[in-house]
């Protein structure tokens, strides 16, 4: 009767899924391990150099926002990766960038970048707003200005309104003079 080990050997070895253990094979495995360790050390050093370069970079992301500083949308790890690539020249996979919270307003934030299992670093970045200024009129959904904007407009007459008022006063004076001279 066959043992279970013989059955596995008959199945795995002929199909190339396993090899028999010999002293020569053990030496080959040890040499492969050493080569892999050297490659891993080189890769770690290279990634550490990239991390050192990026850790000192000042990252500024510009996004459209409202007058109150709320963004139209949110900042994603894809945007952080593209801005960092522009500023440092090093490409970063967006999946290696971890942002703790959703970024939906202007301000300072930080993200963790994991380039290698042994190499990770934090990057601080700033989100700046582009778009509406604080003095721009705020309109409701119907296109009607808010009460605050109407009060501001009433308090500050525009030059065109002043010209129209002066013109209407001049017309009244001319009309009064013609009535007086015609009587």
CATH superfamily of the largest domain: Ribosomal protein L9, C-terminal domain
Q: What oligomeric state do the depicted chains represent? A: single chain
What is the 3D shape? rod-shaped
Question: How many domains make up the 3D coordinates?
Answer: 2
- CATH architecture title of the largest domain: Roll
Distance between the termini: 141 Å
For the report, how would you describe the main beta sheet? 4 strands, mixed
Describe this structure in words.
This protein is an alpha+beta fold and 183 residues long. It folds into 2 domains: 11-136, Roll (Ribosomal Protein L9, domain 2); 147-178. It contains 5 helices and 6 strands, in the order ααββαββββαα. It has helices spanning 4-12, 23-55, 77-88, 147-155, 159-182; strands spanning 59-65, 70-75, 97-99, 103-105, 107-116, 119-131. The strands form 2 sheets. The chain has a 4-stranded mixed sheet.
